[in-house]
Amino acid sequence: MSFPRYDRLQSYQWNYDNPPEVAEVEIPKWPGDSSFCGYRLKSPLGMPAGPLLNGQWCLYYASLGFDFVTYKTVRSGYRACYELPNLQPVRVGMLQGGESDVPTQNEMTGSWAVSYGMPSTEPEIWQKDVMQTRDQLPANKILCVSVVGSVQPDWTLQQLADDYALCARMAIESGADFVEANFSCPNVSTCDGQLYQIPEDCRLVVETIRTQISNSPLIGKIGRIADSDQMRSLLAAIHPFVDALAMTNSIATRVKNEDGEFLFDGQQRGICGKATLNASVEQTRLAKQIIRDEGYELQLIGVGGASCLEDVEQYLDAGATAVHIATAAMENPEVAMEIKAAASVG
Ligand SMILES: Cc1cc2nc3c(=O)[nH]c(=O)nc-3n(C[C@H](O)[C@H](O)[C@H](O)COP(=O)(O)O)c2cc1C
Q: Number of structural domains, the chain?
């Protein structure tokens, strides 16, 4: 049986308008119990913000064995998507962060540059969709909604924090089990894309969100941090207000074509997929060590480059309690079933 996939040669809107039907398929059992922030789950496998453009995409991947689905980042107002290419394959080995640029290639061999700019429908549309999705999703699966603030040129940081908090409250009011605040998007040039690098600013935002969502579970999504002091400062600043952290969003760099010309007007884009696995596992281990040393109550979601059971195990060994897969699941919608099957025979 072959399962429909996201078509990267078509526009974001086309993919938004053409989600696959829910699949009727038997899912292998993950051995043992899994839980995340107090929720019992059938496995630690989930999908992060991005590939699930709307509720029907969430339901489709849930039917293929993912037990935690994240609705693509939404905003407090409409935002258009960047032009194609939204997904540009790149020729890379493992990235660490700090690379000046990477070359394109035609064929997809595991890693691509992601360029959407966090588009969003109007809140009335996504709120209704989230509500219907939560109704249709099996009760033992988590629906998380990713949100971001939409900074305006004359805004203070508090105004940006208020906009994040408004989105978070709207997501929870629509029935989301979790809300995830995206503090790292290399594909936008505004400050919301880099908040995770400024611990005090990030703290103000999570503190403000917390006032609007009471005790509902909150995840912070962060980008690449290799330095242990930087990680320590961020965790110290935000741990009282968040339940979990998801890492790593992607590794930011510029992208050059075969003629040596920069794509995307020479701006950085996030590289996602295989190339980010080692750096992200290492980062998860670093964060876990600090959480242990300091006695913080924080869980970790390992994200970046996972595509098989061995990768999932690496994240779990590093201290993650959940592992989320975007690129490999877009390329191979059966990946959760394959990982569960491998785990159940192992
Ligand atoms: C198509 C696509 C769209 C994405 N959009 C978002 C987004 O809207 N918000 C976000 O926090 N991350 C976004 N991401 C990043 C993913 O959540 C994830 O962090 C990244 O892809 C690394 O996982 P992977 O290597 O399994 O792809 C996107 C990734 C992809 C591939």
A: 1
